[in-house]
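Morning, I've got a small favour to ask if you have a moment. It would help a lot if you went through both lines with me. Thanks so much in advance, here it is.

***
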Amino acid sequence: MRRAATALTFVLAGATLRAQDIALVGATIHPVSGPDIPGGTVLLHAGKIDFVGPAAHLVAGVQRVDVAGKHIYPSLFPPVTVLGLVEIQSVRSTIDTTEIGEVNPQARADEAMNFDSELLPVARSAGILVAGVTPIGGIVSGTLSVMKLQGWTREDATVKAPAAMTVVWPDLTIDRSPAARFSVRIQEKRRDEAVKKLEDVFADAKSYAKARGAEGQSGVPRHDVDSKLAALVPAVEGKIPVIVVAQSVAQIRAALAWAKKNNIKIVLCGVEDGWRIAGEIAAAQVPVVVETLSLPSRPDEPYDTLYANPGVLAKAGVPVAFNDGADPFAAATVRNLVEQAGVAVTYGMPQDKAIAAMTLQPARILNVADRLGSLEIGKDATLIVTDGDILDLRTRVVAAYLDGKPLDLTDKQKKLYERYRNRPTPSPAKR
């Protein structure tokens, strides 16, 4: 409250206001980190939020944007996507999500991201101005980066890199049906080898970090740089989380046990069976990244199992973030993030937690909540203006600001809509 009051005085005094300052006036503001503010004002100054609060008197020099009747939210933020790494699903040359081999911690999404992708403007039109982008595939996929969805270069667009390490937990399922009875031992061997490979590479990274840290001490030799192990050092030292893609109860429990044993900070991604062991996940204080728009993994489960999964986890005390687009062929569906949240609310998740799961929780999970995820003084002026409740699928994003700069929300989908909406009408003679 004191910070808001200080900022209000600043606005009234006009101490260092400039012509490029923008004031969004009259909308219902949804800070996410606090209660909604009806008819409020958001002041954007030098790429940051300089004021959030009730309607304020604005001095000369501020560009006033009337958004009365609209709603202002922080940018939506899917934390685990392949945006910019996939363009056309059916064209292999446009897919750059997976390196050769099963262990590639050195793979970096920020260096591979294509900023000319047609999918980025579509995502921005859906209110997604920032996203976590990661390689996916193998066992250790690579490093996840928090990226702005507009920029000329990697340096322009990177918010944080690396922000996390992505791991796909090995499939622990063994087919013991009569048809597979001769391959059970082979399946078990492959499973055990995959788990051991994961454990070994993290153990090697710990030893590497210890050896490199001891260099310079008396009698300690210099060690050659190993790019794979060096990329894992921030994860084993707890500086960044490990995103673990795990769906089944067996995978989730194995990942939790591995994280506890090795003192590694993890975030579970996928967790289709999370509702079955929500209490265990909550007790471990591990956040989850979930998707709702999928069918149940078992034929005997209710159709709404995954629709209700986020609500069950949230009520158990698990921090939940929504996602869409972690699959190598799902970059085009990231725009459905709001639908993921809306379905979860319909099936039991509190509305305020659902909105936070699209904004503030992803920022917290990836350790960028000091800049993104909520509308607070001092944070990046990265926000959206909508013509209705964000969870209403009829709502449109009517304006967006990235670092305080207004974005052009034109995209390929809109161009195609206008093209075919205005197509020529055949003359009566040619019908």
